[in-house]
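We modelled the chain as a single entity of 619 amino acids. Its sequence is:
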Amino acid sequence: MSILSKLLLDSYLIRRSFSLLAPRCGPVPFKVKNSMTGKLETVTPTHSPNLTWYCCGPTVYDSAHMGHAYTYVQFDIIRRILQQFGGYNVVFMMNITNIDDKIIQRAQAMKGQRQGSEALSTERSDQAKSDWLSVANKYEREFFDDMRSLGIMDPTIVADVTRHMPQIILFVEDLLKKGLAYVVDDGSVYFDAKAYGRGGKFRQTLDPSFMRPDEMSTKKRSPADFALWKGAKSNEPSWPVPFSPIPGRPGWHIECSTLASHFLGSKIDLHSGGMDLTFPHHENEEIQCCAFHDVDRWVSHWMHTGHVVLDDDTKMSKSLKNYVTIKDFLASDDPQAFRIFCMQHHYRSNCRFSEKSTKAAISTYARWMTFLNNADFYHLGVFDHLVGEIDDRAMFAKLTEVQERVSFHLFNDFDVPEAMQALSELVDQVYPIILNPERPKISRLDKAMPLSGAVPAVANYLNKFLLNLGVTMPIRANLFNMIVDAGGASDFGSVRSALDLDVAKLMDDVIRFRSAVRGEARRGKKARSRVNLLKYCDELRDNLLKTGISVKDHGNDCASWDYVKKTRKVNSVDYKKQLFIILTMIWAMLKTTTVLSVTTLLKLLLTRSRSKLALFQLN
């Protein structure tokens, strides 16, 4: 095949491949295993392509742990699939339970620690209220800080319980007027399951072992009844109500029902939470909302995540005190690797949180990042003497097959692990071709042959897949993906700051400079000069490694670089330190070299980066 024919074929195949990444006309149909029915069902949003989704939020009395992280990262991945791949406008709502027995108890415990043996009963009610509210506000702020550190998108709507007390009271009043609830002598209100007369949706019979202690009241007419409103105890926060002379506060289930109904209406497309909320929380939510809205089905489809379990198969939970907080985890581990860990588990399955499983996720993340970097270097010509023969037709056929498999799995109950398996097979097939040390070296003349168009198509597809699912990238080798991403769904510019791009370009020039110096040193005639130059090249490589940058020599005076410290949080101060080391080593080379002129070496380094160095104010 002539060079011109190959270029034309590559151009056609690349355009065809990229067209598969473009948004479709209209949203993509998807299926979910409905926790209520146990069946795989096609979701048809009420107002498609707009989709309403309510997710149970935290009770903010303590720091969130990795069990919470697993649940909310999984839902963030699903939300991104629907938005980025599916074409849906997702209205994602979350509540914040900021009044609860656990919050009150935590406030009492904290006050006891501050005041020693002084009893809470000696404090005024307004002071007690201030204490519990400050506890709730503190942990609500911490929760959202943790979520953002994990790369989780903010909800479309966030609703605190205490800011919507009038709506909750009206909801309870409505059920009382319909004869579906009753007031007891302590001011509490219970839903009347017998008067409602319909069986449960998740469980047909009541299992008291699933009920919270505060719901095991002797004042109830039936064990199946549950609290809508709780009469206040002494010195507890409370709100006046028209249906009782005794003030009180909401029950557990009424909060989510009222807030979701207030913002999303009488029919919700998706409702989610951890599997431990299925019964009684979601059961009772569905029952009281069907009663309130006078409908047979309030939520169209329910989704529940599995648990995080430890090596001894116990669930990670605060009650067992076997948890790791998100803040403690992020102090030493990478949120991107944890996202990959979540992507390796189906959202409905339990996951084993162990050193072995997290290392497997880190390995996958590192391999894919290295592949993307090497794909960039392939097109920079770094691996010209290593690349194998590439059958573009076969490679594009494989890419198309993988794209179809990925699409099927993503919209078939959000089976991300199977989609990742398909991508791994694709990477494993391309990787040996672009970095093949067994291939004989080719001459400079042979380098005029055009490169493969399949390699950038594969790299671009993997890159977009990861970005669309919230996996952010370390600095990449060049701007290739920014160019091809212009018509895609991802805003690549939001992932890399201008500073990141400048550092990446600078690193490209530094590696070119180092390669040129090494090449001249190896060809130089003066032994001392050769030794000094090679020594400084090695020292530059070693110093860069200490900052988290790995330099790899590939022969024929070419090299590549990559970030190796994936857990390191890099900021502008780190960049200044890295650049200071780079420039110090280069200056040492310039002072000792007799092989190249200072002007030539500076030109090699600053050809494209002269204006960029002004960004760094080294003090």
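As a brief sanity check on the tokenised model: The longest helix spans residues 355-380. The mean pLDDT is 79.
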